[in-house]
């Protein structure tokens, strides 16, 4: 098969590396890709959300399957354009991608399908929103309605923090168009986990689960980020628990979508809170997570490519998905100043030395090659250093050993990824 993978982050580098193992792969193109994916396939200078250019390239190069990585091209209608061009696409339509593109839409689906989730309300007026949070109290969660690259959520511990977030989003435009409408939710308590499944129509096939670490600082301090590291599988969330969560939180959503005339076909990434009363939905995403995908995919023992093709063709029941019993840890190394104002341009060293360690893989994200041929920082989240081990402790030790081999001016990372998952 000739495959076009869309995206440029660590998730896409991990997807590219996984797809490259398939004996069914004839050619792999990545748009736009990064220096890491260039070692696996052919990078194409097309932005991930430039849907017309992606379709034109797919037609000209006889692409058999388009694999979307990030959410933006899906919300922009990439799958719809692929269908019109009669090109298989392993992702949902624009209508189905509203599950990620609009927090308000997700709440409506949850309430209609009786899916356990936090109580929430939708606002466009800051004064009305502030009145609401004063009635509900803190802690409370403020969410930009639209896509904000994983940074559109503020878990406000005080009313003052909540009011500041509301004013910044609604009055000052801190999140751009994504934050012109907001959803305010009660704050759920418990362990947060990420659940992944291939979904088609009313069918959901479990992929697996991971636990992300969203805050920039150790002990879950500082602002939210796109994710600073992940552990798979998460402690205290067995395969049996994961299947039960699909029955409770994913399959009812698929049925409600069908009732509305929207058939979902793609990857569902459900962010869940494991509360004292059971799992509750935080949000749906319509693609693999980042950095969860990196931790999940290095555990995959089956062939991803035919599974994605079956998903695109609506023959999900034929897909084979198997994982190693080993544990995986993914550590994100970020640029100085991330997530507010990442400092770019620093030369990165030690990537090859880290990747040479047993059980360690390094996936690139915010990188580029400068005029001198050096690998340099070009974004906020720069690298994902991942490792497999018989236990979380072993995988964690290997991943941190990899991190120690890599350096650039101002590099930052959390030192406690996976600490809660260590054996007691």
TrEMBL record:
<feature type="region of interest" description="Disordered">
    <location>
        <begin position="216"/>
        <end position="237"/>
    </location>
</feature>
<dbReference type="InterPro" id="IPR000115">
    <property type="entry name" value="PRibGlycinamide_synth"/>
</dbReference>
<keyword id="KW-0547">Nucleotide-binding</keyword>
<dbReference type="InterPro" id="IPR016185">
    <property type="entry name" value="PreATP-grasp_dom_sf"/>
</dbReference>
<keyword id="KW-0658">Purine biosynthesis</keyword>
<protein>
    <recommendedName>
        <fullName>Phosphoribosylamine--glycine ligase</fullName>
        <ecNumber>6.3.4.13</ecNumber>
    </recommendedName>
</protein>
<dbReference type="InterPro" id="IPR011054">
    <property type="entry name" value="Rudment_hybrid_motif"/>
</dbReference>
<dbReference type="InterPro" id="IPR020559">
    <property type="entry name" value="PRibGlycinamide_synth_CS"/>
</dbReference>
<dbReference type="GO" id="GO:0004637">
    <property type="term" value="F:phosphoribosylamine-glycine ligase activity"/>
</dbReference>
<dbReference type="InterPro" id="IPR020562">
    <property type="entry name" value="PRibGlycinamide_synth_N"/>
</dbReference>
<comment type="similarity">
    <text>Belongs to the GARS family.</text>
</comment>
<dbReference type="InterPro" id="IPR013815">
    <property type="entry name" value="ATP_grasp_subdomain_1"/>
</dbReference>
<dbReference type="InterPro" id="IPR037123">
    <property type="entry name" value="PRibGlycinamide_synth_C_sf"/>
</dbReference>
<dbReference type="Pfam" id="PF02844">
    <property type="entry name" value="GARS_N"/>
</dbReference>
<dbReference type="Pfam" id="PF01071">
    <property type="entry name" value="GARS_A"/>
</dbReference>
<keyword id="KW-0067">ATP-binding</keyword>
<dbReference type="InterPro" id="IPR020560">
    <property type="entry name" value="PRibGlycinamide_synth_C-dom"/>
</dbReference>
<feature type="domain" description="ATP-grasp">
    <location>
        <begin position="107"/>
        <end position="313"/>
    </location>
</feature>
<dbReference type="Pfam" id="PF02843">
    <property type="entry name" value="GARS_C"/>
</dbReference>
<dbReference type="InterPro" id="IPR020561">
    <property type="entry name" value="PRibGlycinamid_synth_ATP-grasp"/>
</dbReference>
<comment type="pathway">
    <text>Purine metabolism; IMP biosynthesis via de novo pathway; N(1)-(5-phospho-D-ribosyl)glycinamide from 5-phospho-alpha-D-ribose 1-diphosphate: step 2/2.</text>
</comment>
<dbReference type="InterPro" id="IPR011761">
    <property type="entry name" value="ATP-grasp"/>
</dbReference>
<keyword id="KW-0436">Ligase</keyword>
């Amino acid at each position: 098969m000739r495959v076009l993978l869309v995206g440029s982050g660590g998730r896409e580098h991990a997807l590219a590396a996984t797809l490259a193992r398939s004996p069914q792969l004839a050619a792999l193109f990545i748009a736009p890709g990064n220096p890491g994916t260039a070692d696996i396939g052919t990078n194409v200078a097309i932005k991930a959300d430039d849907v017309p250019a992606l379709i034109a390239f797919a037609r000209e190069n006889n692409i058999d399957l388009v694999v979307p990585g990030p959410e933006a091209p899906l919300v922009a209608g990439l799958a719809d354009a692929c269908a019109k061009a009669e090109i298989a696409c392993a992702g949902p339509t624009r209508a189905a991608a509203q599950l990620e593109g609009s927090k308000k839409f997700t709440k409506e689906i949850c309430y209609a399908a009786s899916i356990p989730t936090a109580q929430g309300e939708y606002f466009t007026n800051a004064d009305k929103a502030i009145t609401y949070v004063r009635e509900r109290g803190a802690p409370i969660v403020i969410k930009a309605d639209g896509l904000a690259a994983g940074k559109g959520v503020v878990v406000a511990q005080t009313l003052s923090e909540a009011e500041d977030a509301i004013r910044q989003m609604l009055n000052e435009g801190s999140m751009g168009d994504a934050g012109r409408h907001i959803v305010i939710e009660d704050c759920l308590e418990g362990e947060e986990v990420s659940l992944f499944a291939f979904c088609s129509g009313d069918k959901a096939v479990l992929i697996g689960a991971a636990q992300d670490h969203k805050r920039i600082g150790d002990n879950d301090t500082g602002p939210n980020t796109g994710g600073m590291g992940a552990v798979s599988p998460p402690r205290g969330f067995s395969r049996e628990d994961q299947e039960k969560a699909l029955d409770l939180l994913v399959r009812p959503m698929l049925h409600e979508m069908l009732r509305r005339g929207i058939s979902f076909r793609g990857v569902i990434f459900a962010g869940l809170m494991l509360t004292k009363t059971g799992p509750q939905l935080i949000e749906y995403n319509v693609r693999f997570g980042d950095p969860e995908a990196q931790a999940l995919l290095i555990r995959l023992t089956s062939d991803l490519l035919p599974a994605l093709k079956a998903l695109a063709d609506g023959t999900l029941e034929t897909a084979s998905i198997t994982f190693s019993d080993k544990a995986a840890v993914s550590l994100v190394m970020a640029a100085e100043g991330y997530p507010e104002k990442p400092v770019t341009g620093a030369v990165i060293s030690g990537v090859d030395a880290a990747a040479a360690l047993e059980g360690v893989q390094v996936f690139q994200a915010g990188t580029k090659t400068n005029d001198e041929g050096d690998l340099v920082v070009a974004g906020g989240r720069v690298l994902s250093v991942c490792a497999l081990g018989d236990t979380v402790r072993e995988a964690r030790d290997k991943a941190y050993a990899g991190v120690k081999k890599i350096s650039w001016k101002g590099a930052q990372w959390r030192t406690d990824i996976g600490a809660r998952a260590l054996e007691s």
